[in-house]
Fold this protein.
Amino acid sequence: MGSTSTAAPAAAPGLRERKKQRTRDALVDAAHRLFLSQGYARTTVDEIAAAVDVSQRTFFRYFANKEEAALAILADAEEYFIERLADRPPEEPPLLALRIAVCAAWRDLSTEDYQQGSRGVGAALELLRLIESTPSLLAAQLRRSAEQEQRVAAILAARQGVDAVQDPRPRLLAAVFGAAVRTAHLAWSTAGDRQREEGPEGMIAVIEAQLDHLGPALVAGHWSSDTGH
Amino acid sequence: MGSTSTAAPAAAPGLRERKKQRTRDALVDAAHRLFLSQGYARTTVDEIAAAVDVSQRTFFRYFANKEEAALAILADAEEYFIERLADRPPEEPPLLALRIAVCAAWRDLSTEDYQQGSRGVGAALELLRLIESTPSLLAAQLRRSAEQEQRVAAILAARQGVDAVQDPRPRLLAAVFGAAVRTAHLAWSTAGDRQREEGPEGMIAVIEAQLDHLGPALVAGHWSSDTGH
DNA sequence: AGGTTCGCTGTCAGCCACTGTCATAATTTT
DNA sequence: AAAATTATGACAGTGGCTGACAGCGAACCT
């Protein structure tokens, strides 16, 4: 480190950009802490900005709205999940690839150096509970999930070599997978603190259980057969 | 109709309540018309209230927020769907019951006297497009769908005689079904106007196609088999 | 090293969604 | 007809969010 010229392949961070990253992290941390301690609605944007000693205007240059600051951590995690999914070999069955990617994401993000600040597994649990109990946040989170599903569908379509707009199966599979993960989130965040002590393995177990239920649930639903309208 | 005494089993409407219903309908219609003509964001609540000649404060006594007014029609439709689902006999396979209920809802709401005002099939199409292109509305709609899924899950659990909190399958099936319907909405609203001319049958066909794809999509996803972690 | 350019930030002003409060008018009840 | 209930309007205030402009410091060029 410390090369004077501009040669690094991964683009030198630059003092300016490092400061920006630090400001953003500080805002996310402050928002997270305030939301958890006094609630989402009772925390004003001015408070968050003041805690980091920037103006309210600057807050909105980092986040489009208050919700985005609250969901920033989840957004980063989902970004990581997308990368892991893209890593999987195309020969792998789609649902298996999804399963491995989501488990890898949870494991990595819990053990790696992402632990600092408000980015641990315990914090994730409290965040999920906060989201579930705050209508405005839940709405924003579901919208983000919908966008995420579009991206997943595109990746699946590319893997299988089918057209993403013509063939509805990638979208449907992505939606089903998203539903399973969301159901797992809900089950995990309401399951009491016993699960919490198990760390990421607890969450992974719940997700896998949901995925295992997919088949039986649909079979029990007798989805086939003619309806006769 | 026109009985003078208070004898009707379904509780006499009363002058007050009829007026309230008319105000609400007028607000929904005005909001719908303004949203479609000038866009959601460019329409202020004051405009909507002024169009019906009530105060802004009154608007917020009918709707918790601007989104709720936009989604009121969908909310009524989903209410009707829930009723149809509750009508289905418990012996019926769950997914078949869901399928019949959603098709019946679309058919009934298109042919019945619900056609007045902005409650036709054509209006539904434009509304779905508006929602899909307005982040704020999409978020609110997805949150409503999530609540709806909880209700559906409860009904399914009761039908099958299982515990709604212990057994995750009703929730999962409800989520999967919701995903299929949402995917169908998206496909229908972006399918061009050819579908629109087919009336409700076009929409129903798309939904049924999505449901038919559920099985193959999951089978192609190789959901079973051990992953080995 | 010097000056220039560019991008981040703060300040100010303003719109609009949304809420609490109280007075008033209309409806229902007795 | 009087009293209790309830919808509505008028008003004021909070807070999320945006546009415009100016200042300052990093980055880039010579």
Q: What stands out?
A: The two ends of chain A are 69 Å apart (CA to CA). Chain A has two domains: 14-63, 66-220.
